Amino acid sequence: MADEEQFEAATSGASQTIPKQCSALRKNEFVVIKKRPCKIVEMSTSKTGKHGHAKVHLVGIDVFTGKKYEDICPSTHNMDVPVVTRNDYQVIGCEDGYLSLMDDAGNMRDDLKAPTEGDLGKEVKEKVDNEETFHVTVLKAMGEESIIGTKQDRLEK
């Protein structure tokens, strides 16, 4: 019985990150720093030292929290790059703080919490209260999802 339970919890095996050599990373790309998906905002490379490797200094901003992270890595070592996807969903409504969303194929989902803080939270709440039709952009990385922006429908002006 215990063996069966283990197999039920198995995942698809798709990786949430891919390895990439540190020296091949570029500004505005994504990288995992301290187990968080970050967008690289600054990077510099030091010269090769007495013991061989040039070092790459990375500064990244967490894509979900906005927190700043730094890391130093030898240029020849691999770093994890998160698999990041962006999807647009039409907002149908909001109930108990969760948005009802529909994708282009007509599939519905009600599992995403509406943002509550900052300008984005105010904008989403205002549009839902006014019953406007609009789209939200959802960013997904490393098993986490968050609404990062809104788009006005093309039909309305």
From TrEMBL:
The keyword RNA-binding applies. InterPro entries: IF5A-like, IF5A-like_N, IF5A_C, NA-bd_OB-fold, Rib_uL2_dom2, Trans_elong_IF5A_hypusine_site, Translation_prot_SH3-like_sf. CDD domains: S1_eIF5A. Gene3D superfamilies: 2.30.30.30, Nucleic acid-binding proteins. PROSITE patterns: IF5A_HYPUSINE. GO terms for cellular component: cytoplasm. GO terms for biological process: positive regulation of translational elongation; positive regulation of translational termination. Keywords: Cytoplasm, Elongation factor, Hypusine, Protein biosynthesis, RNA-binding. It holds the Pfam family IF5A-like_N. It comes from the Eukaryota. One of its GO terms (molecular function) is RNA binding. NCBIfam families: eIF_5A (TIGR00037). Translation factor that promotes translation elongation and termination, particularly upon ribosome stalling at specific amino acid sequence contexts. Binds between the exit (E) and peptidyl (P) site of the ribosome and promotes rescue of stalled ribosome: specifically required for efficient translation of polyproline-containing peptides as well as other motifs that stall the ribosome. Acts as ribosome quality control (RQC) cofactor by joining the RQC complex to facilitate peptidyl transfer during CAT tailing step. This is Eukaryotic translation initiation factor 5A.
